[in-house]
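Sample pair:
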Amino acid sequence: QVQLVESGGGLVQPGGSLRLSCAASGFTFNRNAMSWVRQAPGKGLEWVSKLSGDSTTTYYTDSVKGRFTISRDNAKNTLYLQMNVLKSEDTAVYYCANPTSGYWGQGTQVTVSS
């Protein structure tokens, strides 16, 4: 069955960095565009970034442009999100997902606080 397992979240100070990973299995990873979606406390889901299966096309929400970088290693069936210059408003649970296919991970908590 499809599995998406995120890791790499944690507590970081403002201005710091984190790298999230998402290990995928159970589907043809390299044929699927993948996204990172987040949910801040008390708020709805917010799409953060998307990367095509061949890594040629990327999309970012405006609030993370220039700070976050999405990437993937299709040989390892893994999706990444490098997050730099983190801000308190980045605090959220981050999900690895292919919403079109209904694939979602369990999420990893990112907390940005001094």
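The two ends are 40 Å apart (CA to CA).
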